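Thread: quick sanity check before group meeting

JM: Hey all, I'm pulling together slides for Thursday and realized we never actually wrote out the predicted structure for the chain we discussed last week. Dropping the sequence here so it's in one place. If anyone has concerns about the input, flag it before I start.
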Amino acid sequence: MHNLIGRQYEVEELERIYRSGRPEFVVIYGRRRVGKTFLVTQALKGRISFHHTGIFPEEGEKNPKQIQLESFYFSLLSHGMEGIQKPKSWMEAFYYLEQLLIQKDNGSRQVVFLDELPWMDTPKSGFLSAFEGFWNGWCSDHDNIMLVVCGSATSWILDNISHNEGGLYGRSTQEIKLSPFTLGNCEEYFEHEGIELSRYDIVQTYMVFGGIPYYLRQFRKGLSFEGNTDSILFGPRPKLNDEFNKLFRAIFRNSEDCKKIIRFLATRHSGFTREDISKATGIPYGGGLSDTLSALAESDFILRYTPYGEKGAVERYKLIDNFCLFWIKYVEPQKEDESFMSDSITSDIMRSWRGIAFEEVCWQHIPQIKRALGIDGVKTKTSAWNVKGDDNNDGAQIDLLISRADNIVNLCEMKFSGDSYVIDKEENLRIRKRLDSIGKTLSPKQRTHFTMVTTYGVAYGKYSGIVQKQVIMDQLFSHSF
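JM (edit): ok, ran it. Output follows.
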């Protein structure tokens, strides 16, 4: 088996399911480019009886159903089916698949892998009914069948399989959400590929590309972080040309609405309420917007959270997809500049970006932060806090609060720095004001621990004593939790 970095749990799950001795219906979903296909083909290598991948539905196709059926037909032929005509319907197509599996059946486990399943469900094609019939009417009666389906279109997967109220209700036997790599996984990947990057540059890589394996595979030996970023995203022939638009077209049928939401969320770090999003994008405030936001959250593009101390528990949505944020802020306006990152890496605009992007990296590594603080076994609630100022009081913004069941609140300040971080007199005053503001909201039994999450720690000095706890960059690379 190919070295499946960062996927030990998923591999073990697929192996357990493979040996269960029962009919199994496995659903694997996650953000496009996160490695779903690679996981299945490598974890079950040599054991897949039938594998078919849906065809990406191009806009304006005159007969998308026939294109999908023809592709399925050729997959049947390539797996040994003989003496059949091209199916005219999905009912006929799945009947042919049943006959192929009967021919191949020797009593051992048969794995049917249908990749990019949502793409096969073209308008008015009858696909979903036929697929339901295939599982309910045939697969579920055969103990040696393991049906594995994948799809980047998370909203389709959730609506038609996970939350299906018809024939597929409760039919999947296992669902696996494949998440992006952590920093530790990224480091392991680069080491495996012989690509030399410091942890400082791996964090910067994460700020741009997130933990998306497909994007990391574009990196080449001998190039720095800056050089790789320029070749992948900038210039006349970037490796990921128009990736932002391709990404949303491939995942969401309402891709334009999704992009409107993402672009709006990119304008404010702390995020917006659903009402804010509806007003700004023109998307009606209702079930459609709720479903789209849920699909974006399930695909790891956005995060839904309740701000600390917010009355009425009003939820906010914030953009946490590093790639989308960097694309909107820098790739779109500078895409023709083939050396943008190399030329700008020490500029003020890049320093500002690293400050914001590092905070997102920290939000994506809450388990590692909790472990570094020694509270991975403590029940916690993670949130942010933003208090508007008025004539009498200054405003206060706290980007990460960890409220703990042991009556401690970790007020976390994240700073990305090329050296040990120095707290000066002015910042010490700002910190004390924040501590005072948050302290007024706490009960008498609660206490605040001011916590710094930095690259290389806090420099010892006159004001460093205000820091109760520290988390350094190296601890974010932990994956033993």
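AS: nice. The chain is about 45% helix and 15% strand. The mean pLDDT is 92.
JM: adding both to the slides.
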